[in-house]
């Protein structure tokens, strides 16, 4: 095999390898998926054929997804706000705020114990 052919094979191999950014993104996706798998268990069993996700997407942003409906919670300095699907944000108050805080706290405790010991 010629040196030129070896070089082409090596360059082709290297191009197929994920770069550092791709590896970081893949690792983040894997962690979000692992966290979500635990988060969905906080609210009891999922009925067969249904879907549920609950996870912290990024700092101060939480996602609840169940059966086609997605709720995005944003924790801001002046409160917690939610957006259902494509609708605008509304401030979360009362019992719903208490439930969100309890779920977020239970989620953080669970993933710290199971993933990030």
Written account of the structure:
Helix content is 47%, strand content 26%. With 117 residues, the chain is α+β, with helices and mostly antiparallel strands. It has one domain. A five-stranded antiparallel sheet has the order 1-2-3-4-5. The radius of gyration is 20 Å and the shape is globular.
Oligomer: single chain
Spatial shape = globular
What Rg is obtained from the alpha carbons, in whole angstroms? 20 Å
Total of helices: 3
Query: What is the total tally of β strands?
Result: 5
Kindly summarize this structure in a few lines:
The protein has helices at residues 3-16, 20-39, 94-114, and strands at residues 52-58, 61-66, 69-76, 79-84, 89-91.
Task: Break the fold down into its secondary structure elements and pairings.
Elements: H1 3-16, H2 20-39, E1 52-58, E2 61-66, E3 69-76, E4 79-84, E5 89-91, H3 94-114
Antiparallel strand pairs: 1-2, 2-3, 3-4, 4-5
What structural keywords apply?
117 residues; alpha+beta; five-stranded antiparallel sheet; 5 strands; globular
